Structures are given as structure tokens and as C-alpha cells.
Amino acid sequence: MATHSRSTSIVSRSMGAGDSGGAREKTRFEQQREALIGEIAMSFEHVLANINKLNRSLEAVVAVGNEFSSVEALWSQFENVMAKDEDEGKAAGGDEQEHPEGGERYTTPKDEPA
Asked: Where does the secretion signal sit in this chain (predicted)?
């Protein structure tokens, strides 16, 4: 019931500034204004509650994502090792090419042009 007490305090503060201490009846405008201010205050409370819920959900998503950081690091390391092995294999063995006439494959040394 904190929502109701907050909206009531907002309404009472907004009314207290305009009253001159008399016990006069409120006009229809003032009654509607109070009702609308109360509705707005309750709507703000709902928005705040939903934003808090969204924040908690986003924190949970980030926490799940952080759990995969070690897996991602392992795959990155594997990818780097595989790329390095492939580069070393090409540099050491030369380029393998297909002979245009016979269709057989041969390897040319790195220093010799193709």
C-alpha cells in the first residue's frame, strides 16, 4: 500500500498550496485534477516496478552471457592455433599446384616461380 500513500501525499501537497484554510467544497475541476494526479502517481509506480523487473532480467541475461566467456576464449585459442598451423604448413612446404597438361599435382619450392 506504499503506492496509495505516496499518491495521497502528492495529492495533499498539491491541494495544500492552493487552499486558503477554508472548508469550502472542491470544484469539479479540482476533484478531477486530484483523481488524475492519483492515477498518474499510480502509473509512475507501475512504470518504476516494470523498469526494475526489466533491469533484473537484463542482469540475468548478462550473467548468463558471462558464463560463456571461458568457452569463447577456448574456441578463440583453438581458432588461432589452427590458423597458425595452416600458415606454417604453407610456408614450409611450398604451394601445391596442378600441372596444366597432365592434371597431376606437383609442389614448387617457395623460391622457384610457378
From this structure: none
